Each structure stands twice: as C-alpha cells, then as structure tokens.
Amino acid sequence: MLAGGVVLSVFTLNYFFDPFNFRGTNDILAEKKMVGNIMNGKLFSIVEFNHSPPVRNFIFGDSRSGGLNVDTFKNEGMGNFYNLSLGGGTLYEERDLFWWIASRQRIDSVVFSISFLAYTKRYSSNIIPEMVQLLNEPSKYYTSMFTAKSSFQLIRLLLEDRPAETNLEDKDKLWNRALSTADTMLYGYERPNDLYREFARIVAYCREHNIAIVLFIPPVHVDVQKRIEKHNLLREYNIFKNDMINLGPEVVDFDTVNNITEDRNKWADPQHLADDKSFQILTHAIVSAFKKTKGNTTH
Q1: Residue 295, Cβ density class (10 Å: 0-12 exposed, 13-18 middle, ≥19 buried)
Q2: Model confidence, pTM
Q3: Are 87 and 66 in contact (CB under 8 A)?
Q4: Are the C-beta atoms of residues 148 and 10 closer than 8 Å to each other?
Q5: I want to staple 76 with a disulfide (CB 3.0 to 4.6 A). Which of 115, 120, 241, 287 is the partner?
C-alpha cells in the first residue's frame, strides 16, 4: 500500500508539473523549456517536435546545425522544414530519428549535418530508442523518479526570484575550454564503418522513396581545424570527406578555410557559430544543393 501511495504521489506530481511538456500545454512553457534543457535537452526537443504541426522536411544534426534558418527554406519555395538538431546529439541519434520519423509519416526532404568530430566510433551514445519508448508509454514518464526530480527543479525555478541571466564568462576561457573539448573528441579517433553503412542504407531508402537528401558538413573555426592536424588525423579527415562524397547525395561542405571559419567574431566558441548572416549563407547553400538535386531527379 505504501509503495502504491508513493507511485500515485509521483504520478500526480509529474502529471501536474509535466517538466518536459508531454501534455503539450502552453502553461509555464518558458520555465519548462529552461528546466527541460538542463535536465535532458534531447528529450525536451523530441517531445516538442511530437507536438508540432506536421511537416515533411527535416534537418537532423547537433548544436552545430541548430542555427540553420527554416524560414529561408520556406521563402525559397522548399516548404516547411523542422530543425531537429539536438544539442550534444550523435550521428547514431540522427540515424534513429530519421528511421523513427520515416516509420510514422511521409518525408520529402532531409538534411543530415555530419561533422568530422561526430563521425567517430567513440561517440556512439543513443538515447532515441528510450525516448521513443517514453512517448509510446507515457505512464513510464509520469512514474519516473527522474521526471520527479525535474518537477522539483521546475518548482524551485518557479519559486525563485531569478534575475535575467547573462553570460559573464571570459570569451578566451570559453574558447580554450571548447578547444580542450575538441581535443577530447579527437583523441583515439576511429572511423565508424558501421555508420557509413547505415548512412548508405538511408541514402538508398531516400532514393527508393523519392526523398531529396543533402549532406551538410558544418563549419568549425580554423582553430579546431588546426587541432585535427595536431592529432595527426589529416588522413582520417580526408577519408571522412571522401566518405561523404561517396555516399552519393549533394554535399555542402563549409568545414574549410573560408571567411566564416577564419573570423573569430562570428563564433560563440570554436565549435559553435553565432552569426545569423553566416547561418543564412549556410542555409542558402543547402537550398541551392536541394534545387540542384531536384533538378537532376525525376519524380
């Protein structure tokens, strides 16, 4: 009886506060988003997508592609896009997100953002199956102690008199920390042969089902590019670029030395672009690749 009372209390707490907005309400949405992104940003993003108006065009990526402008696609006659780039996401998660959505609906166009830093067997984590299971069995979400912990975080946030947040961290310190993160990601690099086969399978599926597909290699600042050379990975880096070309779709590659990657003022840190005009350039290049693809394809 005691255990049943605890479960009921946890369910009631989580259902009322619903920190990841499973019920899709607009109540305290900004606060839920703040807590959700801290506790599990991937889950919050997937639930948010699950409640969004239906679209047939998608961007799959991580935080490097989060700034791609969906309005530009629409203005260029490409239709409505949904940017499902997950902060901290892996290519294994991009793969599973694609198959999950393809199992639910028709897809017309997809962008896969694939960076060299992510194209490695070292980063194979994948929480998408767990997230999909929660969506299919919401009782597990409402009775979860993790959800309860998130609910208490939301309560705390609602009770606090919070001043407007400002990022006061010195940019040089932030920059060097991001370079250290890049070093960690590059250490022990191993080409993900399984991922190459999986993306080849996705490309074949897209061709079979008349889905336009573009591969996007996002930019990183030249300081990160130099780290690749420092780790003696230029050969592996070139193999990665060839893998993207050999997959077959149009490739939009901004991981080169160019006006964007050389200008430090355009970056929040060396892995994350923070300049709207630059993101517009990237988005327009992807749109052009789609138009080239569709011009060469008979539907």
Answers
A1: exposed
A2: 0.91
A3: yes
A4: yes
A5: 287
* Residues in contact with 115: Cβ distance below 8 Å, sequence separation at least 6, in sequence order: 62, 64, 217, 218, 220, 255
Spatial neighbors of 217 by CB under 8 A, at least 6 apart, are 113, 114, 115, 116, 241, 244, 251, 252, 253, 254, 255
The pLDDT value given to residue 6: 78
Residues 126-181 have pLDDT tens digits of 999 999 999 999 999 999 999 999 999 999 988 986 654 545 568 889 999 999 99
Q: Rounded CA gap, 44 and 86, in Å?
A: 10
Q: Can you name the residues that pair with 81 across neighbouring β-strands?
A: 57
Alpha helices in the chain (DSSP H): 2-17, 29-50, 70-75, 91-102, 128-136, 138-142, 145-159, 171-186, 193-208, 222-230, 234-247, 276-295
Separation of alpha carbons 174 and 252, rounded Å: 28
The three-point CA angle 74-76-77 to 5° equals 65
pLDDT tens figures, 35-83: 988 899 999 999 999 999 999 999 999 999 999 999 999 999 999 999 9
β-strands 272-273, 250-253: how paired? Answer: unpaired
**Token pair for residue 236?**
């592996």
C-alpha 86/C-alpha 65 separation (Å) is: 9
Residue whose entry in the numeric block shows the structure tokens 């630059």? 278
Residue 245 pLDDT exceeds 90:
yes
Q: Judge residue 5's burial from the number of C-beta atoms within 10 Å of its C-beta, 0-12 exposed, 13-18 middle, 19 or more buried.
A: exposed
* CA–CA dist 18, 178 (Å, integer): 33
Q: How far apart are CA 107 and CA 211, in angstroms?
A: 6
Cβ atoms of 5 and 13 closer than 8 Å = no
CA dihedral sign of residues 272, 164, 148, 152: positive
Report the SS3 class of residue 252: strand
